[in-house]
Amino acid sequence: MELVTAVLHSGWLLPALVLMIAVDGPVPMLPSETLLMMATASASVVRDVPMLLGLFLTAVAGSVIGDLAVHALGRGSNRLLPRSAYADHGVSRWVRSNLFRRPVTALAAARFLPGGRLVSCAAAGRLGLGLRPFLAGSAVSSVLWAVYMLVVGLVLGPMTGGNPLLCVLAGAVLAVVTTAVFALVRRIRAVRRRPARVGTPVPVLAGN
């Protein structure tokens, strides 16, 4: 507990978060969101407005840098990104169909879907989306995601009292609930799109 508290109040927190959020783009295994949420909740309890602003800017900067890295890797080599970046499923198909018509909408919406950041940014690089529209989409999606994380942290702050362990537990529950909701919505949409089965016609016997 004391170690976690020391990390949350360390002068290295913001630079470390920028790096973690950036690396979390091509390699989505680091607990950057958890640490960001914990730091936001802790800062909200003591009403540290400068820290909250710093966390917001840190989240945006790290997100844009990571998006650019995934875009560049998607454009250059398929071997440097995990296989999930090229998976063919509902999210990737939706991103591909909307990427050039509505790049900002496609990148921003995909950001809030499980695995959507990696898939959308890799697709943008692989399909040759220009840097200017990609940066616009990345900036919008990064700001929206940073606002979302800030709001979550502000909500969890009073509920957890800034306790790091309670923040982690609450964040885990929130992640599970969010993933379950997305999965449920996807399943409902798939069922609605499934064509109705046509019953086998019953043969009619001709009367004598």
From TrEMBL:
Matching Pfam families, A to Z? VTT_dom
Top-level lineage group: Bacteria
Q: Which family does it belong to?
A: Belongs to the DedA family.
Q: How does it sit in the membrane?
A: Multi-pass membrane protein
Its main subcellular localisation, reduced to a broad class, is: membrane
Chain segments annotated as transmembrane: 12-31, 51-73, 134-156, 162-185
Domain VTT residues, every copy: 30-153
Q: Which InterPro entries match?
A: DedA_domain, VTT_dom
Q: What is the name of the protein in this document?
A: Membrane protein DedA with SNARE-associated domain
Where's it found, cell-wise?
Answer: Cell membrane
Keyword annotations for this protein, in alphabetical order, are: Cell membrane, Membrane, Transmembrane, Transmembrane helix
